UniProtKB/TrEMBL annotation:
Keyword vocabulary terms for this entry: Repeat
InterPro entries registered for this protein in UniProt: RCC1-like_dom, RCC1/BLIP-II, Reg_chr_condens, Ub_ligase/GEF_domain
Biological source species: Pycnococcus provasolii
High-level lineage: Eukaryota, Viridiplantae, Chlorophyta, Pseudoscourfieldiophyceae, Pseudoscourfieldiales
Pfam family for this entry, one: WD40_RLD
Keyword match ATP-binding: no
RCC1-like domain ranges (all copies): 1-324
Per-repeat ranges for RCC: 1-51, 52-103, 104-155, 156-207, 208-270, 271-326
Name used for this protein in its record: UVB-resistance 8
Amino acid sequence: MFTWGANAWGQCGTGESGDGHGIPARNPWVGKHKIVRVAAGQFSTAAITDAGEVYVFGLNDSGQLGKGDFSPGMVEVPQRVHIDGEVVGVSIGYAHMLAWTSDGKLLSWGRNFYGQLGVGDHRDKSSPQVVSYLQEEKVVSAAAGQFHSVVVTERGELYGFGYNRDYELGVGDNMDRVLPQVVPTLSGKKVVAVAAGGYHTLAVTEDGSLYTWGLNNLHQLGRAEKSSGKVPSLVPLTSGGIVGGRQIGKRLKATQVAAGTWHSLAVTQDGSLFAWGRCEHGALGVPCDGGENGAMSQPHRVESLKDKKVLMVAAGAAHSHAVVAA
């Protein structure tokens, strides 16, 4: 595992805190472990080993490192989070974490002011809690937004909980939820991929349809109007791009999505990458000519990658990454 960037809270896990690291450095503290997955949050980091163990480091003021206390200090070297089961995935929000195991169990810990842990109350948790409301389901993926969480089950049902003032949960109202709530509009459509942004959510169904909902102040939902999306609505991705403000050409099937704080990304079955939302700092990878208030209101293909097959995509607060086939 290599880490770099801001390190004021030890989120690089190098054994020290302070100035950031501009060059990737190998982490010496996990040398004996084979890391298979990593996740980065606002001020903390998590890594999963091939044995299904979770190691975390960084800020712990809300118990987000899951080590059993709320010490305001930092953890500068990776520490194992004790979870019963083989962890296969982890996601980090502003100050909370979600993890799911190979047998479909969902665990959460950290800040819980808005109910983003899904355990039925608003109290922060300093150690992993099983989300018992979903114990009859098998969780296969999850995503932590700024203050909300979304979960996909093996049956393809989508659940949301936590902050909902901007309709992030897609349930039709703006009341926070402390327990997982099924997203009724997508019930029965079999969700296969999900992403949680700052205050918006994206999902892909089995037939390749892309749905978005939540805050839309910078067109992060991929819709021309700027009103928030109270429930999931379909966003077309087409081969012909946008002409006269309309998507034209053949409909493309989405396979995966990523959400930053104010922008969104989607990969289609043919390996194309689409981007929309706030385009300041070059986060979309497309020219932002004519974009209202520095935003693209509809999905635009990232033309600089048109001859590449995109395999994986990730979105940070205002930057993006893509892995393409060699």
